[in-house]
């Protein structure tokens, strides 16, 4: 197929040869005059013997001839399959493989790739080629299966980028599964990044047929994990194409005080020419810093351009409270010295007395050898219960007063008085070292240095909870660290001093690690592999291909070794994971990862931009031909003098076709305005609609018999198309499969409700779900009600006007009883003391009544006015049906009379006045 | 030979037309307000005319005693002279009258016109009959129904042939037709009527398409039953000749009527029927001693 003129080509050009027949057709058409009209004409006797003045036969008029030739020509051209901008494809009949990288690197230009895929599918569809679409980022070891092009667009249209990059091992497995002898052409929609398997894939494809690469962008940008250095935060970005200088804006996002995700800061990262790495360092208020959740590159929605933060980013404020001033103690003996040294790099320290420190609302309060909290104990307890972490260290004073401290004290365990000395001058034993940490301890996995020696400790009273509260123990099993949850917070006790007096623990790196594990002093470095392997991790959030964070609601926990294996092989799902209160983040890019652009071999044609779209417009020609032929029908009739009847008929047909509905609609509205009509919403479910119709018929019969309301037959309405304002009452059975009304319909419904109409929503499920269950119908009702202008609702109160608008009722059963009936909540007012339902109702009718009693089924009657559906059993059931009908009567009375009947409560008063 | 079934079908067809015919004719007849008018002289009749003093020769039983008792003279009560005229209508219900270009055929209009005329005349006390059918002149409501039943029948002839055979001496006659057939039969009918001392009116009922000839293009005109067929390539070119020929024919008809002492008028079916009805009634009133 070659483009002919102006970029127009033909799929089947040989059809155009039929155009050679046109001149012959011309001659034939020209020689054939229009057929004569036969007319019955009694006065023909007057004509007999007359002669035509023009002896030449009447010919087809020229313009009619041209019209017909144009119609035939349009058919020929249409069948030849004209195509605008035809794609230059050498061999149009081989299968086509659309190979998409499909990883996150493709996400920023995803739409372009989608368009290119659809375009290739359309082109293949035009030529009837077989197509297969393969996404490298999610391949498995299966052979390519080709299918008709028309079966692919739905799959392609819904594809989203995978939150990973193509994996070399997977691709190798995929390649191994292919049959090398198929033979197909390939359109490779590439993300432009180098990866290990790419050359192997290219070689394989080259062996099958031609390969075209579509690569909308050469450049990919990503963020490396954020590093913290004290107060400084450093964000590094990398890119794959260093050809041009570029500046990217990094958004620091976190939760705002209302809990929504917001951009808390924006920083620019500038790349110079030739640079593939650049970083920006900044500091940020610790208030804001603690709220940071992730960084992202603006305008580059991809997993790689987002780096999520874990708990490491948090900078905690810690209140350090020492014992009573010890005068001029040596600095190294200061109980707080080592703590200060360990915590100050990563935390904001508060050193003041407890009462003042608590007002600053610190994250952690450290009490070093403080036994008595005179006066502040209640405040401290409240603070802990609200989520604070209280970290206590033992010491001589705590040991001395341990006997006086009872269960109410802010300690994890009860302590024995005095403590004990180990390996001192006055004791037999040697200093104790630490036992290895239990696997379920938060310290699990930490290495215990050989040289740790504990010479003194406070001892816990044995109790059933002691083992559960022990986080670390000495080699003889006595607890060293204990913890107890209190409210939302926790109390942790180190059974040694915070200085080097009782042990050398504070001097070791283990002490810092322990504080880190307790999330008291995160160090700003990622957890080690051992840390990860030691625990089971619960996914919190995942990043999708576009870099959006998605809550990992139902994801199962992953045990440490598995997660570690996934991380090392690059298969872990990116996001955040939590274990034991510690949070880790797994990001697409590691701290040393780089990106490199793919340099394609010379034999591969690489397209950067989308091609001009190939567009078939044969259909337009055929349509034009049909239109011309329609014109020809009328033109021929006109030329032959027979148009009048035909035109009249056509006009009549059109008029009937267009006016039929209008007239029907008008009659409906006329009927509804001249009578009382109960309406129901047609759901499309035949059973439900039948029940609604019979129900309203039955209710109408009952109203007719018992009241002055005399409705005619009920009417089915569709809120989308029908005028609602003429119906005083609409029964709306909720069907879970029915569509939610359109915006226009909502407008009409809201106008209807404002104008005093009433809708009874019936979920028809009290029998199945009881009063509180959430059935599909109720969920659907929630969806419907979202767009409706519905006031606050409440269960119908005992003195609501519905209970006495005609009959005195206390319950409102339908086919099912016991459900809750919801009506508009009465607005509280203090003006009258006459009962809730009377307050301030503005004579309004509750615009909606909701329930699940399936009232229509209870009301339903057949033509003989016999009930249609069973209600309850025996006499009780008949009684229930009667009450249901009475509820219906009350409801309609309520619709028509408003709160008229509520005035009944005033009757005693009015009678009294009359008596006077 | 007409099968029994065909007859029944035709009868049912005619019966279906009958009420419509009556319904269409009644308002038309009602628009003519006429009374049973007298001869303006005394004679045999039912209506009171005058009292006159009794003269010799009057029979004693002719004296109106009640009037005479009021004075000394004897009076005779005279009645107005009333005699019913015979009016006989011939209505052409042949195939040619079935032509219509706008929804009302010439035949139907002719039937309505005839029936309305009959109603008016019957109301005026005249005797009306239908020529060509077994329907001698009579008066009364039953006669109207009978005339209507006869008018509902359509015959198979391509052009109508007047039936002057049953005409009564001294009667008045009305012929309603399109007069597109052979004019000789009309001429002979007129002659026959003159022989019997019958005078009357000719009404030519035409369709608007027959007067204006609005056709164009290639056409074949045919009158099936008569076997006439005429083809033209350009109907519009024939219009002038056609109109001229129609005019000639109308002139011939007018001449024939005049020489026989008859009246002639033309009625186009897209025009209201009242004027022609009034014209007919006037003609009949003047010509006869109606």
Outline the secondary-structure elements.
The complex is a heterodimer of chains A (916) and B (290).
Chain A: E1 8-10, H1 22-31, E2 37-40, H2 44-47, H3 62-79, E3 82-84, E4 96-100, H4 110-127, E5 130-135, E6 147-148, H5 153-157, H6 168-176, E7 185-189, H7 198-208, E8 211-214, E9 221-223, E10 227-229, E11 232-239, E12 246-255, E13 261-271, E14 277-283, H8 286-289, E15 292-297, E16 306-308, E17 316-321, H9 337-343, E18 347-350, H10 354-359, E19 364-368, H11 377-385, E20 389-393, H12 396-400, E21 420-421, E22 456-457, H13 466-469, E23 470-473, E24 479-486, E25 489-494, H14 509-517, H15 529-533, E26 536-543, E27 549-551, E28 558-559, H16 560-569, E29 575-579, E30 582-586, E31 606-607, E32 615-616, H17 618-639, H18 643-674, E33 678-681, H19 686-706, E34 715-717, E35 729-733, H20 743-754, E36 758-762, H21 766-769, H22 776-786, E37 793-795, E38 822-824, E39 848-851, H23 855-859, H24 874-897, H25 907-915
Helix pairs in contact in A: 1-3, 3-17, 6-7, 17-18
Chain B: H1 4-30, E1 48-53, H2 65-68, E2 75-79, E3 86-91, H3 106-123, E4 127-130, E5 135-138, H4 141-151, E6 172-177, H5 183-195, E7 199-206, H6 208-212, E8 219-223, E9 228-232, H7 239-260, E10 263-268, H8 274-287
Parallel strand pairs in B: 3-4, 3-6, 6-7, 7-10
Antiparallel strand pairs in B: 1-2, 4-5, 8-9
Helix pairs in contact in B: 1-3, 1-4, 3-4, 3-8, 5-7
CATH architecture of the largest domain in chain A: 3-Layer(aba) Sandwich
The greatest interface between two protein chains, and residues involved on each side, is: A-B, 26 and 37 residues
What would you give as the CATH superfamily of the largest domain in chain A? Domain of unknown function DUF4159
Shape descriptor of chain B: elongated
Overall radius of gyration of chain B? 23 Å
Tally of discrete structural domains of chain B: 2
What is the helix fraction of residues of chain A, given as a range?
25-40%
Total domain modules of chain A: 4
CATH topology label of the largest domain in chain B: Rossmann fold
| Biggest β-sheet strands, sense, barrel of chain A | 7 strands, mixed
- Calculate the terminal CA-CA distance of chain A, rounded to whole Å: 106 Å
SSE topology string of chain B: HEHEEHEEHEHEHEEHEH
Classification by helices and strands of chain B = alpha/beta
- The overall pLDDT of chain B, averaged over residues, is 81
Q: pLDDT under 50 segments of chain A (min length 5)?
A: 829-842
Helix content of chain B: 25-40%
Biggest sheet strand line-up of chain A: 18-17-19-20-25-24-23
Strand content of chain A: 15-25%
Q: Got a strand count of chain B?
A: 10
Quick one: CATH class of the largest domain in chain A?
Answer: Alpha Beta
Q: What is the highest CATH level, the class of the largest domain in chain B?
A: Alpha Beta
